[in-house]
Sequence to fold (928 residues):
Amino acid sequence: MLDKVIKQKLVVIGNGMAGIRTVEALLERAPDLYDITVFGSEPYGNYNRILLSPVLAGEKTVDDIMLNTVDWYEDNNITLRKGETIAMIDRRTCEVVTEAGDRIPYDRLLIATGSNPIMLPLPGKDLPGVIGFRDIHDVDRMIKASTDYRNAVVIGGGLLGLEAANGLMKRGMNVTVVHLLDTLMERQLDPVAGGLLRKSLEERGMVFKMPAQTQAILGEDRVTGVRFGDGTELAADLVVMAVGIRPNFELARKAGLHCERGIVVSDTMQTYDGRIYAVGECVQHRRQTYGLVAPLFDQAKVCANHLAMKGFATYDGSVTSTKLKVTGIDLFSAGDFAPGPDKEEIVLQDANRGVYKRIILKDKKIVGAVLYGDTIDGPWYFQHLRDGTDVSHMRERLVFGAGNLGDGGVNGQSSVAAMSDETEICGCNGVCKGAIVKAISDKKLFTLDDVRAHTKASSSCGSCTGLVEQVLAFTLGGDYSAAPKVKPLCKCTDHSHDDVRRVIVEQQLKSIPAVMRFMEWKTLNGCHSCRPALNYYLLATWPGEYRDDQQSRFINERVHANIQKDGTYSVVPRMWGGVTTPGELRAIADVAEKFNIPTVKVTGGQRIDLLGVKKEDLPAVWADLNDAGMVSGHAYAKGLRTVKTCVGSEWCRFGTQDSTGLGIKLEKFMWGSWTPAKVKLAVSGCPRNCAEATCKDVGVVCVDSGFEIHFAGAAGLHIKGTEFLTKVETEDEALEVIVALTQLYREEGWYLERMYKWCDRVSLEQIRKRVVDDLKNRKALFERFAYSQQFSQSDPWADRASRGVDRNEFAPLAELELA
Amino acid sequence: MTQWIEIGALDEIPRLGSRVVRTPGGNIAVFRTESDEVFALDDRCPHKGGPLSQGIVHNKRVTCPLHNFVIELASGHAVAPDEGCTHTYPAKVENGTVWLALRQAAAVS
Fold:
């Protein structure tokens, strides 16, 4: 075909993680757009540079850290020219020129030249035995030196220097670390944590000389020692300079591209020449340069989007976290932890346990965290930091971490490092720690999504997500690619739930194809994740106008029953407030016998569940239940499920209000409404709380003087007591507040985000302001809910049992018999 | 020998949806894509036997309603990294009628 013949040419300079990650992402998005040529001066495929430290320390081999072998380039029709260095970019003719003088034309050029170690301009810096720490070649030289020589000096007490020192020490050398300042890793650590780190490294035999300035490297044919500013000298057979890295942008600068501390790029990763892109450590974006892997992956994604001509993604910079890859030392730092007048600190220090935690807050949000000795909660703090969560409601327990907030994971166990390989991490799919670690190592996985796809861990209920992220961090040495700050709705798009909801309103988008077209969906019809989400968003945004798309509903909501493991369904009729009658019970019994329904079970929400109904029997079962006055209980819906009640003042000697009556009123008003995730209510008639209202999405606890309204509870994956919202005096007010609250959740919640997660995200205060304090807004919310109810309160069972809706759904297309 | 059997009108299968054809050997799910292509597969997910006909159809794939295995309609293969395969049957549309090829089936009731 003609368009295949004239493919555009993409040339990539740099065969490292940033460049290749971009190419991978590009192939995912537009596999046939470019002829791709990659130049790399190192004689290898693409390897994981972060893991050079474990290679030096002898914990991993070079093969372990290879990400893309030569076969991968071949399989993807990429020309890899390894061992070849580009000498010049000729922007006038759009060609790159190799050192050997070959000229290769490009339509688009990607510069990913990374960085170089900074070599201090000291006398003697060019002596044999003085090296940087940057690539496999450096590691080889260090390993060789460790067998031939005894004394090593590492200049630089930062992350890289300490990892180099640790590796050399593990290889049997005497190592002295020379650092200019009096705090180790001063960019990541405060003095206390720096001190703890120094102490434990000294216990392992590392020697420190700090603060100290190196003045000269001594020796004639080979390095023999180092002289310091104070005149003292130290013998050395190997000097590793690890004072930092410098973006490698010489090539770009010579080509006349604008460079400052790196190649200056825009939010779309373009240089000042629109044909030329740059990613990774060689770039400067919004005055920042980055030397960690997570930001570089973010950049790669944005750049790939643009190269694929799906130009909507932008890179807004990254917040980074670091973890020292020295086995046995737990250290985590993220964000900004310099003291300041507008910042507050929460510090926990336990010298005997060797634990130090410092959380820095600003405007009720986490802006920085330094953890030493106990870094289990690092990813959790980091998540809140990036999400900008308001943490005021958990402030007093914050420093103790996620485990203390009922968010810890399986069986309260939260320390992944301490787990054996046989420990089950994902209870839904039976995945053990060992299996996850093996998949991460064998299949070179980097992200949570990768692990989900390959192991199924955390892919069902998601309650072990934190643990899986920890396993990732632990296996990869910390610098794994954390889930992006703004999560895309699903893999079919880069837009977040919030973006999609906003654009639906702004652009008046009224169908799923319209949303997908306008927001440039990457797939033809989306997938099982985004279609139900879009269907809900459109339904909630345009009540009465949007036509519900049955094919975008999960089967349970399409057939108004719950699918079971054998393909049969369960049927739960509504029992308002959990109250039933002899007539209803008789009808249920009759239906169960008539249709040979194998199991009849009482549910936790005070309903009766008929299990094992064949799909084709559903309309007839419903017809019989309808005849007895019963309607769908919506036990299958992301919508209002049940309102559980106690008997209240009607019967109970302790009852203060008619809790049963209020429950029924709530249920009659709210049934049929669709919500982002299921909503369960309860009303208790007194503080003894027999209806267990304080672990529901919304719970009312009646008291003598009125009604306490609680919300955002959970008693499933997570156990979480409700938050107190407000207290009102009358039933009508209670109804109004609860309906307004539900409507706000309908308008703002992300699909499948339970009410307690939504509350965590937008904060209790914000919700209270709009639902309780602002009376006008409360009324408006209430009205919008009431308006939308007129379109949703039609019993879906009756529609199908007697009005012929979706008749095709329940009958086979044909029946074939054998000849 | 392949024997083509008429199983119904294309209109009776929803776009991005599926209907079931009952056979003595078990159900066959017949899918219709957005562009009116049809595919026929055993109505059993290779993972845990879930009824694929009840899944959400997207492009030329279906997601099993039980555990979200994604199956390629054309080949019956699970989308990597998942593994497994469901048996497929030849199916075609002619003048708005759907035809299915089964080796032994004969009568339509």
